[in-house]
Specification:
- The chain is mostly helical.
- The protein contains six helices and two strands.
- Strand 1 (83-87) and strand 2 (95-99) form a beta hairpin.
């Protein structure tokens, strides 16, 4: 007889595998446009600042990556015409990430397809379960981000 699975372990493994699966789906979908899932997620992070162009450091923190990794993604996005990397007018050492008209046009043209894809991904999940999962994952993300700063066991 096997012992029942520890729910935390099952959730951890499932979220990890789900993240990889969704990354693969997005990479396949975005590849014809020369984009990757990571680049898409950085664009989403930049969008959360609204009309304000975030600094590279702000975008990196929101995206959850190092400044260096974020800058590499931003440079690729700039080459593709999705962002402009500009010096801050008040502090030339600070870089700001500005979304371009090409970015908006690209996503506007794909909005319906994006919505259809999300609907298909979540078609087997009722609204209550989806809401509960969103709340749980939001808490887990905050906990994970805290652990990144302090170390998994608070020893940093």
């Amino acid at each position: 007889m096997t012992a029942p699975a520890d729910p935390a372990r099952v959730l951890f493994a499932t979220v990890f595998l789900l993240a990889q699966s969704w990354k693969n789906l997005l990479d396949d979908e975005l590849a014809p446009a020369g984009l990757s899932a990571k680049q898409w997620m950085l664009l989403v992070a930049i969008e959360t600042f609204g009309d304000e162009a975030p600094t590279l450091n702000q975008a990196a923190e929101r995206y959850g990556a190092t400044r260096q990794a974020t800058k590499q993604l931003a440079v690729r996005l700039e080459r593709g015409g999705f962002v402009r990397i500009e010096s801050d007018p008040d502090d030339g050492r600070t870089l700001r990430l500005n979304l371009t008209a090409r970015h908006r046009e690209f996503w506007d043209a794909r909005a319906q397809r994006h919505l259809e894809g999300l609907t298909a991904l979540f078609s087997e999940v009722d609204d209550g379960s989806l809401s509960g999962a969103a709340e749980t994952l939001t808490v887990l993300l905050a906990s994970s981000r805290d652990a990144e700063r302090t170390g998994l066991f608070g020893d940093r």
